[in-house]
Amino acid sequence: SEVAVGAWVRAVGSPFGLEKSVSTGVVSALFRSTTMESETGVNIYANMIQTDAAINPGNSGGALVNAEGKLIGINTLISSATGSSSGVGFAIPSKYALNVASQIMDGKTVEHAYLGVTVVTVDPNSQRSLGVSIDHGAYIDSVVVSSPADKAGIKEGDVITKIGGQPVATNAELIINVRGHLVGDEVEIVLNRNGEEITVKATLGADSQSPSRQQSESDSGR
User: Fold this and answer.
1) d(Cα 187, Cα 59) in Å, to the nearest integer?
2) Backbone φ and ψ of 149, nearest 5°
3) pTM score > 0.70 for this model?
4) SS3 160
5) What is the DSSP letter of 212?
6) Which of 57, 85, 148, 222 is most buried, judging by how many CB atoms fall within 10 Å of its CB?
7) In sequence order, which residues have a C-beta less than 8 Å from that of residue 217 and are 6 or more positions away?
8) How far apart are alpha carbons 158 and 97 in whole angstroms?
9) What is the tens place of the pLDDT at every residue in 33-79?
10) CA separation (Å) from 18 to 54, 56, 117?
11) Is 142 helix (H, G, I), strand (E, B) or coil?
12) Are 76 and 58 in contact (CB under 8 A)?
């Protein structure tokens, strides 16, 4: 929570098999979020620490430490147009990593924050077909009964434009924002309903409440 843009950091790891290597740089941004395609689907990386310290293959899982050697993040990926290190690396914040690690060590299923909606991106092309008055945001296609969204009064046809103070222009931005919070966080959500701006508050649940996850766990237990 005390990390600031411009602070010196070191990335520790074994890039390209070179054990016990250290690279240095600065924190170039905070709260970076992205999605990345994988063989198993789309991975969501939310609220990461961005650094220009070189993070190469083999650094993943290693420590990102501050100038005093204190752990602030876990090196996890690079963003590159060529596939090689471009000087833009990302680390999972230590607070989030420790929360996940404690769940694993306690033998629990890792839980992520959950709102309970399916969404579609609103843009100038889809605005007319969706029948909404704005040309950006996350259109609520459906709301899970008794979910945090349902309890907050969010309805089908609403368009979420802001959550937790952060603008929402696409469905991906909404998903990333929710994933960046912890289970139990209360978030303020601004939405457009029939041309009127409405603000509601929702207490995020756990994705173990998601019908799709419950069905998946039920199928795996057969």
Assistant:
1) 34
2) -65, -45
3) no
4) strand
5) H
6) 148
7) none
8) 33
9) 776 666 655 667 777 889 888 887 777 888 999 999 999 999 988 77
10) 14, 11, 45
11) strand
12) no
Compute the distance between CA of residue 60 and CA of residue 208 in angstroms, rounded to an integer.
Answer: 27
Please classify residue 57 by burial: count the beta carbons closer than 10 Å to its beta carbon, then call 0-12 exposed, 13-18 middle and 19+ buried. middle
Picking from 157, 165, 160, the residue whose alpha carbon sits closest to that of residue 197 is: 160
Q: How far apart are CA 21 and CA 11, in angstroms?
A: 8
- What pLDDT is stored for residue 14 in this prediction? 81
Q: Whats the size of the chain, residue-wise?
A: 222
Give the number of other Cβ atoms within 10 Å of residue 61's Cβ: 11
Amino acid, single-letter form, for residue 147: S
Q: Is 147 exposed, middle or buried (0-12, 13-18, 19+ CB in 10 A)?
A: buried
Which residue's entry shows tokens 């007319």? 128
| CA distances (Å), origin 150, targets 64, 144, 156, 169, 213 | 39, 7, 10, 21, 18
Q: What is the mean pLDDT of residues 133-158?
A: 95
Residue pLDDT, tens place only, 71-113: 999 998 877 666 555 568 889 888 888 888 888 899 888 888 8
Give the list of residues 6+ apart from residue 42 with CB closer than 8 angstroms, or none.
35, 36
